[in-house]
Design goal:
There is one protein chain. This protein is of the alpha+beta class and about 500 residues long. Helices cover about 55% and strands about 15% of the residues. Among the domains are: about 170 residues, 2-Layer Sandwich (Beta-Lactamase); about 150 residues, Histidine kinase-like ATPase, C-terminal domain (Heat Shock Protein 90). A 5-stranded mixed beta sheet has the order 6-8-9-11-10, with helices on one face. It is rod-shaped. The protein starts with a helix and ends in a 9-residue tail after the last strand. About 0% of the residues have low confidence. It catalyses: ATP + protein L-histidine = ADP + protein N-phospho-L-histidine. Pfam families: HATPase_c, HisKA. Its EC number is 2.7.13.3.
Length: about 500
């Protein structure tokens, strides 16, 4: 940009100076020719006065150097009126003829730039009619070279060219630095500030408060950038809100799917309770009658086993009903850590936990919650039994570990974590682990209702439950419950 600018400025200055010089040269040439014409007029007037005498000889000779000392290229001619059309140079003949026809002084010059470029010598021809008794009897003419005049003008023109070059350099440098200050530097500053305007940092264009166009441009750019920054902030806020809304929509969609599944299970459970409950009650009555009818010891054993299986079927129906409609139970305020200790004592005596190291890490500073303790005990038992089954399904069963811990990962919430080093589950299985009747255990070893019922109990208490797992790396179940305040309510 600087190079183009200096070339443009130099070209404009050069053209302007050449045009001024051409105009001045034309004026100089006109003034010089005017002075030479006045000189010729004086000489011709003097000669014509001498020729007006009656005895004056019209063809007498006059010395050119007498009237034009120092000049050699020229001559003075006295021509009778009838001899004008003799063989004369065209310039003299035309000038003399015009003087006779007009009756006054006539001047012609051959001094164009085209003649000079062709190498022709410039001449000036002047003619004046000679009068005698009021009649034109002839003409006196003078022709002389203008080369000395143009030589003088050319010498002066050389000085002018030097002056033009000096002025071009001086004015070019001054114009360059001035235009650099007024145009180039503000543009470069605007470009640099524009390059620095990133999403992380808002850079405003500095105005020079001079009222110039660049100041107006900087103000306009600042207004534009302020609007862009405002729109960007609004866009970010809108995107964040859309992300939250999309996430909530997905969560609501999953909840609707799960609710639909639970509704289906509820309908099925109600139907099963109606269709199976009554026959089971009848069978239970007959079993009671048979037990009181004095049966043998072997028959009593059969009746006891039948009653156990009947109770097992009734328990499955109750689990199905609990999955469809979980009651709120009887909430009460208690300390979770004490409940954890009792649950650990309960499971450690079972054979499934003989080869498992069960560790309790009660790290939560506050552990008062408001929930039905029996429901929370059932939830913990379901989770611990699932962890034990996952460990027993692994290859290294003797190194099983379960860590039962508490902390406060979120404000006003108590989190219970059950972490094991069992076989874990895949991502596809993890997405459906809380669905009713879904189980990763072998057929006959699980109903798939434990985690579904547990999650319903936790959500009814105002908490939430989630599971993290990777195949071959174990699983972690998190149970988050709201803490109870001093007044006995959940925070």
């Amino acid at each position: 940009m600087k190079t183009k600018l200096i070339l443009t400025v130099a070209a404009l200055l050069l053209i302007a100076m050449l045009l001024v010089n051409m105009v001045l040269l034309m004026f100089w040439k006109r003034d010089a020719l005017q002075r030479e014409a006045e000189r010729d007029q004086a000489v011709l007037l003097h000669i014509a006065y001498q020729l007006t005498a009656e005895k004056a000889y019209l063809k007498q000779a006059f010395s050119f150097t007498e009237f034009y000392p120092g000049e050699e290229s020229g001559q003075i001619m006295m021509l009778p009126r009838d001899d004008i059309h003799t063989e004369l140079p065209p310039l003299i003949a035309e000038t003399a003829t015009e003087a006779v026809q007009t009756g006054r002084l006539t001047m012609r010059a051959s001094a164009s730039l085209a003649d000079l470029l062709r190498g022709q010598q410039p001449f000036l021809a002047s003619a004046r009619p000679v009068l005698r008794q009021g009649q034109i009897i002839g003409v006196v003419a003078v022709t002389r070279s203008l080369l000395p005049l143009f030589t003088t003008l050319w010498q002066a023109e050389k000085i002018v060219f030097i002056y033009i070059v000096v002025n071009l350099l001086v004015l070019g440098v001054i114009s360059f630095f001035r235009m650099t200050k007024l145009i180039v530097r503000p543009v470069e500053r605007l470009m640099q500030l524009a390059d620095r305007h990133t999403e992380q940092e808002a850079v405003w264009f500095a105005a020079d408060h001079s009222g110039s166009e660049f100041n107006q441009l900087a103000s306009s750019l600042n207004s534009m950038l302020a609007k862009i920054e405002q729109d960007r902030t609004i866009l970010r806020t809108t995107v964040a809100e859309l992300e939250v809304a999309n996430r909530q929509l997905q969560e609501r969609q999953q909840e609707m799917i799960r609710a639909e599944k639970l509704a289906s299970v509820g309908k099925m459970a109600a139907g099963l309770a109606h269709e199976i409950g009554n026959p089971l009650a009848v069978i239970q009555g007959y079993l009671d009658l048979l037990a009181r009818s004095g049966q043998s010891e072997e028959n009593q054993d059969f009746l006891c086993r039948a009653d156990q299986e009947l109770q097992r079927v009734s328990g499955l129906i109750r689990q199905l009903l609990n999955c469809a409609r979980v009651s709120k139970g009887r909430p009460e305020i208690f300390f979770v850590h004490a409940l954890l200790d009792s649950v650990v004592e309960m499971v450690q005596v079972q054979s499934a936990f003989k080869q498992i190291k069960l560790t309790v890490q009660a790290e939560a500073a506050q552990d008062r919650i408001n929930i039905d303790p029996d429901q929370l005990r059932q939830v913990l038992l379901n989770c611990l039994l699932n962890s034990a089954d996952a460990i027993s399904s692994g290859i290294e069963r003797n190194n099983g570990q379960i860590v039962l811990s508490t902390d406060q990962s979120e404000p006003h919430f108590l989190r219970i974590r059950i972490e094991d080093n069992g076989i874990g589950i895949t991502e596809e299985q993890l997405a459906a682990v809380f669905d009713p009747f879904y189980t990763t255990k072998e057929i006959g070893k699980g109903t798939g209702l434990g985690l579904s019922v547990s999650r319903s109990m936790v959500e009814n208490a105002g908490g939430f439950m989630k599971m993290e797992s990777k195949a071959g790396e174990g699983s972690t179940i998190s149970i988050c419950l709201p803490l109870a305040d001093e007044g006995g309510n959940n925070d």
